[in-house]
Please model this.
Amino acid sequence: MRRLITLALILTLTVAVVAQAPSALVLLTLRQVHQVILSDALEPVQSQQLTRAAWRATRRVVPELPSEQGDWTAFEGAFGLVPQARAPAAGEAALRAMVDSLKDPYSTVITPAERELEETTRRGGSFSGVGVELAWRGGLVVVACLDGSPALEAGVRPLDRILAVDGQKVEGRTFYTAGNLLLGAPGSRARLQLERQGRPLALEVTRRSLRLPPVVSRKLSGDTGYARVGFFGPETVRQVGHELGQLGPLKRLVLDLRGNPGGDYDQGIKLAGLFALGPLLLEEGHGGARKQLSSRGPLAFKGKLVLLVDAGTASAAELVAQSLQGRPNVAVVGTRTFGKARVQSFYELPGGGGLHLTTGRYLGQNGTDLNGKGLLPDVAVGPGEDALARALKL
Model:
């Protein structure tokens, strides 16, 4: 799940100091990121930890600086001594060191090129790669393969652990840099070294141009409809509303979230709001502050709702299932979901790059945290059993 937050103070002040020394621009960015981490990171961190990380990283680039001492103010004073030519490299090292000190695989700094790729994918829904959605669970793990993706066709499965891509090991990389190994030009081959249930596995997948899956629907019978949501993009709720309108009056709707790895957090909340009014979930942020997430309607459907979930249902898709489970006329059918219940916010940085930072967790109304556990369905489906057929019997 991702939110876009602009560091307005950075962008405003950058205009004011652009004619000054490059080190002033770099230091301004470091100062603002330091403040953002202290105020917004889900897990509280001390300024001393960030200062120590920034100081040590800077001295690796500029060894002649004084040894680590004092607080953040002292670091800023020392950074002012960095030669102009080395200020950008020293600043980038310090910035990455502060974020790395959080020991959070989802918090990272991205380059302008990486950000442009993310924005292009989000806006246009297209990219070139193998077509998997990933998470970090002691390493890089496949949440789900996108519908019609080459990874799905090659036999990649949810919960497969990716150890290396084209001979490049995942170990030692951040979540984002590891995931980027799977991207590449259409027609290029990705040699994957995987681990499945403790056993090594090698697969070769041919990358190709892909689009994020749209919402699709069909009538199953006179009064039963089916809608498949394979990913949460910026238009998902609008698409679901359109598809429901095309299906016409229904008494029962099967909403298929199997293999849906999540995506846009706010779209997940809004989708749940199409089927329920009132409190949905709690969002817990920095320092344990909680915010109630609710729906005011209007409802798009008031009949029997059956949600299909599996091990590839994660993040925003789990949010929908957790919001609706336990309500009258709602049943969750399938297998335990993946268990990713964290909110990542994105902060724009000067120069076109950005900061991904874990800023929240979502919880059930009773405080239940699905992260690392997953959601248990109301009706469990066994291996080889047809989940849709089971849903239609309810």
Observations:
- The chain has three domains: 2-106, 126-210, 213-339+374-391.
- The longest strand covers residues 354-363.
- The domain at 213-339+374-391 is CATH 3.90.226.10 (2-enoyl-CoA Hydratase; Chain A, domain 1).
- The longest helix spans residues 22-40.
